[in-house]
Design brief:
By secondary structure, this protein is of the alpha/beta class. The protein has ten helices and twelve strands. It has helices at residues 37-46, 58-75, 89-100, 113-124, 227-237, 249-256, 267-282, 285-306, 335-344, 371-388, and strands spanning 82-87, 106-110, 132-135, 158-162, 164-165, 170-171, 184-188, 205-208, 220-225, 310-312, 324-329, 360-364. A seven-stranded mixed beta sheet has the order 1-9-8-7-4-2-3, with helices on both faces. Strands 10-11-12 form a three-stranded antiparallel beta sheet. A hairpin with a 4-residue loop joins strand 5 and strand 6. Helix 2 (58-75) packs parallel to helix 7 (267-282) and helix 3 (89-100) runs parallel beside helix 4 (113-124). The radius of gyration is 21 Å and the shape is globular. The model is unreliable at 4-9 (pLDDT under 50).
């Protein structure tokens, strides 16, 4: 199979999928992901009293406090760790981490767009040494447990990779690699948190944003920080390094401990995150969320393996993401036409990551997405493919 994306321009067909075959909710995006209608209804009904009010006062601070406690419960945050929040999303956190967590040199595992973006940040930072980069082609990944000995140019003091690489659908475990004592383990959990198992004792900074697994809106970063990470933040804050106030993790920590953010947050984002946390915890917490995503992904990958025209992009079943499914199509099946036809029928955001350039679909399977809808999606894909290939 050569799954490079077709070069011809594709347009949706005039096909109309029978309503009985369609998923109840046709949103399968990998970020922003589906926001539950019930959460939006709650925002309209009771969130209005918070909109336009001070984030320094009790009502919004109570919301932030609920979020911090809810995340601690959901993720099993160890004693001594802090849940910190700041504005700007994961991209802002990469910059903040370069200023406030990396002392001199980072080591990055790069196996897709987003793991590569953080490596680019530390590589471009003029106050840091050149990072060590261990890379793999998209669809594969380096093994975190096999990170080699320290570089001859100096040992890295921070080790960074993604729990789930959103661009490729590759998942890696959160572990402490041997031979790197004293180095902080920094995990991008943007599309993993709340849906993948994790032992946070193996991480020093487990950071994410709410617009994927937490079925909310963007513009916020959240980081679970170990005592070692908090000490590093204080050390660098007290050093001669200039740190922009907006990117100061020390300032973010100080404000988070007061249940607030340094800058004015998007209150609707906070409300939707709190609403989703309640929904997750009421249904059984992380164990339930993991099982729900697994149910969706097992169906998707089994369907692809049975298919005559599709196959999982990630070859190693152990590395296949339970929340971001990437499915390659054979050259004779035009995935862009399939995606466009699905979109014309109200089934949206299954296009592949734009820079990957493959003839594939990418399907979000976060906890908010009903496994029954994933099953209906694959039925619809088969229905469309059968008719466009006639």
């Amino acid at each position: 199979m050569t799954p490079s994306i077709p070069t011809a321009s594709t347009q949706p067909t005039e096909l109309r999928i029978p309503e009985a075959l369609k998923p109840a909710d046709g949103r399968f995006g990998c970020g922003p992901s589906k926001v539950r209608p019930e959460a939006l209804a709650a925002l309209a009904a009771s969130g209005a009293s918070l909109m336009g009010t001070s984030h320094r006062q009790r009502p919004v601070r109570a919301l932030v406090g609920e979020i911090r406690r809810g995340l601690a419960e959901l993720l099993g945050v160890p004693a001594g760790y802090e849940v910190a929040l700041g504005n700007g999303g994961t991209t802002a956190f990469w910059d903040a981490a370069a200023f406030g967590l990396v002392r001199s040199r980072a080591l990055h595992l790069v196996y897709g767009e987003f793991s590569g973006k953080f490596a680019a940040v530390t590589s471009g930072a003029p106050f840091l040494d050149e990072p060590v980069i261990a890379s793999a082609d998209p669809g594969g990944a380096p093994d975190p447990a096999s990170i080699g000995p320290a570089s001859a140019d100096g040992p890295p003091d921070a080790l960074a990779w993604a729990h789930n690489e959103t661009s490729t659908g590759v998942s890696l475990p959160v572990v402490r690699p041997p031979g790197h004592e004293g180095a902080l383990v920094m995990i991008d959990a943007t599309s993993a948190a709340g849906a993948l198992e994790v032992d946070l004792a193996n991480a020093d900074a487990y950071y994410f944003a709410p617009q994927k697994g937490f079925a909310g809106d963007g513009g916020l970063w959240i980081a679970v920080l170990s005592p070692a990470a908090q000490e590093r933040i204080a050390e660098l804050d007290a050093s001669e390094r200039w740190i922009p106030p907006f990117l100061s993790l020390q300032t973010a920590l100080e404000n988070s401990r007061k249940d607030q953010t340094y800058n004015t947050p998007a209150v609707a984002t906070l409300f939707l995150l709190a609403e989703q946390l309640r929904w997750m915890l009421e249904r059984g917490g992380l164990e339930w969320c993991v099982a729900r995503a697994r149910s969706s992904s097992e169906h998707l990958y089994e369907w692809a393996q049975r298919s005559s025209y599709a196959a999982p992009f990630v070859a190693d079943p152990v590395r296949r993401s339970p929340v971001v499914g990437t499915i390659d199509f054979e050259p004779g099946t035009d995935a862009p036409t399939v995606a466009a036809t699905l979109r014309a029928n109200g089934i949206v955001d299954v296009e592949p990551y734009r820079k990957l350039g493959r003839n594939q679909l990418r399907i979000g399977m976060f906890p908010a997405i009903d496994p029954a809808d994933v099953e209906a999606l694959t039925t619809c894909i088969d229905w469309v493919v059968e008719r466009i290939q006639r």
